[in-house]
Amino acid sequence: MIQLPYSTGKENTLTKWESGAHPCFNAHARERFARIHLPVAPKCNIQCKFCNRKFSCVNESRPGVTARLLSPREALDHLDKCIQSTPAISVVGIAGPGDPFANPLETMETLRLVRKKYPGMLLCVSSNGLNILPFVDELRALKVSHATITVNAVDPIIGSLIYEWITVNNQQQQGYDAVYTLWDYQQLAIQALSFRGITVKVNTVLIPGINDSHIEVIAKTVADLGASLHNVIPLIPAKETAFESIPSPSATLIKNVRTVAKRYLPQMEHCNRCRADAVGMLTNTESRPLEFIAQSQQNTLTHDPKVSIPVTSRKTRIAVASQEGLFINLHLGQAESLRIYDIKNSKPVLVDIRKTAHANAGCGKKNWHELAHLIRDCYLLLVSGAGPLPIDILDTKGIKVKIIEDEITTVLSQIITANTAQCDKLYFQSATI
Ligand code: SF4
Ligand code: SF4
Prior knowledge:
The protein is an alpha/beta fold.
């Protein structure tokens, strides 16, 4: 049997922060060492057909899911607290919930902060490889020791079945153009990282009927490029994705493809398919994600459910329909509550969460008038969908409805920027009651 990289057979004597102490790259280290993912990277520059980051259920455990996003400073604070409660943390990883290098400012700043405070900590990044290349020298300088590049296909026909689009230099590409570009950058990424002494693991999502007969070719190809480890991850069908009806691969299929791929690369067989905010030992299935932080930070927000609605002539607030408080991802008709934000010192602040009546009581005219009254201090409502009737009724009450699906913080920041620049787009303007 091929040994995993760094498996020395002396794992009991490994000290924290030796490169062999990464519990994902070395199965033997997972009994003693823990990892933490810092969710600072919300955006992604590609769209895989199996990925949906809109759903952030604290009970759901899969990559791309986080209870909340952290700024680099918040991430460092979070790390400090987690190290106190879990001293076994040997590695800090950035794995989303989007792609770390679609958010390079946040990712690199977080790595710099962690490196400064914890000079010996193992650092790890996980990316689709499209935009990591400009950062490989700084990653090396920061002593990032481990990287994961996800490669689901090295064949353009198979790749075109898996990827919907990519964005490069602010241009979106689709079809074969997208697949060729992505694979070009992925090859360069694996070579550049391994050339700099960074250990590269390749993740491949095993998608039955799409790439299951392609895993051997992927393993051989990425091994030739310098990858040290291969992690074949069974597909988790996610709601509202093109692949939602493809079933997870059977245990037999997983075993068979790993057996074949093992000829070229050691196989990671202990991956937990962790959330983007996972913390703890891989062996502890209850390793707690960030929801407890989300809850505690929620309590420290200026949110007060009984906050009175100001009786002023000017609407200043923004209402948001969100399932979990991270993304604008609810249709107005489904929104049992709306989050209310104020802009204070050019920053969005959650000030209230208001229960709506219409989600349970029906969507008649009367209920939309009640909704308009409920959010009468807001000039803008952000939702992922709404019918013409509520849009018209809210409009007559001076509340614009903007239909959009994105992160709340991203959209609110755009609104702040637009207001600062006195952008005259109608939905950015405040109005009078
Ligand atoms: Fe989702 Fe990752 Fe694919 Fe981006 S690269 S779409 S975050 S799975
Ligand atoms: Fe390790 Fe897999 Fe979890 Fe990533 S998803 S931290 S590789 S166990």
